[in-house]
Design brief:
By secondary structure, this protein is of the alpha+beta class. The chain has a domain at 124-189. The chain has helices spanning 16-21, 36-51, 60-63, 118-146, 149-158, 162-189, 201-208; strands at 80-88, 108-116, 212-213, 223-225. Strands 1, 2, 3 and 4 form a four-stranded antiparallel β-sheet that branches. The longest helix has 29 residues, at 118-146. The chain is elongated, with a radius of gyration of 25 Å. The chain starts with 15 loop residues before the first helix and ends in a 28-residue tail after the last strand. The relative contact order is 0.17. The protein binds zinc ion. Zinc ion is lined by residues 67, 69-70, 76, 116-117, 119-120, 193.
Length: 253
């Protein structure tokens, strides 16, 4: 991996903190142009963050060739990454914050990068598209029928507003159908894939250590990318793994 951590004058150069920060280059690093006292504060932050992580770290999620979202013994081959952020409050801060705002702020963020096979990614993506797809198909089909003049005319003969009412009815049906389909498919997919990331062993270990999902919603959806994040805290691969990946991820969604 091409890296330009060349500033040997940096108080953190070559240290474990430098490795943990895992910046592409000294330029743009949080420790850039900091004096030793400020650098020590950064080291303390990084140490605190690592103290909150599971002992083995999070690299096992993305370092291997196998999918880490597959359930059971048979794992698919990794072809993309599912990104999922978790956040943690600063345990050193004793100040109680008034919760005037709903939105939470976290002192620490950790990107979890799940190596993901094609099947697992498609399951997530299908579920996120399904409600819209159902609406388009059902409403489009209904429109094709109701818009035909003989049909529309016979509906209008009953009551002038009836064509519109029929369409509204189909809108309701497509909404409910979408909901039911998503629920049924999620249950089926969940046998093979961790469709609810809160069930994933790594997320559970992190949750037990005080980390929280950053995303709102009942079933937070990971963001899929072909290439994983390579720089920043929590993105360093174990030294044994050869690095072939070039740059930050392109979005698949
Ligand atoms: Zn998989």
């Amino acid at each position: 991996m091409e890296q330009e951590r060349t500033n040997r004058n940096c108080p953190l150069w070559g240290s474990e903190t430098c490795a943990r920060l895992n910046m592409r280059a000294c330029r743009g690093c949080p420790a850039e142009d900091k004096d030793p006292r400020e650098a020590a504060a950064i080291r303390e932050d990084v140490d605190t963050l690592y103290g909150l992580l599971p002992e083995e770290g999070v690299a096992s999620l993305f370092a291997g060739e196998a999918c880490t979202l597959c359930k059971g013994e048979q794992k698919g081959r990794r072809e993309s990454y599912g990104l999922f952020d978790m956040g943690h409050a600063d345990p050193r801060s004793t100040k109680k914050k008034l919760s005037l705002f709903r939105g939470k702020t976290y002192a620490f963020m950790m990107p979890l990068q799940f190596g993901c096979c094609r099947d697992c990614r498609r399951r997530f993506q299908l579920l996120s598209w399904l409600p819209m797809l159902t609406t388009i198909l059902v409403l489009g089909g209904a429109l094709l029928v109701v818009a035909r003049e003989p049909v529309a005319q016979s509906l209008r003969n009953v009551w002038r507003g009836l064509p519109l009412l029929v369409m509204a009815l189909f809108a309701g049906i497509s909404y409910l159908l979408g909901k039911v389909l998503v629920r049924v498919l999620r249950e089926r997919f969940n046998r093979k894939t961790y469709m609810d990331l809160r069930d994933h062993p790594m997320v559970q270990r992190m949750t037990a250590l005080g980390w929280e999902n950053v995303l709102e919603g009942k079933y937070p959806q990971p963001v899929f990318t072909r290439k994983r994040l390579q720089y920043g805290v929590g993105t360093a691969a174990p030294p044994a793994e050869g690095e072939k990946i070039a740059a930050d991820g392109e979005n698949l969604d």
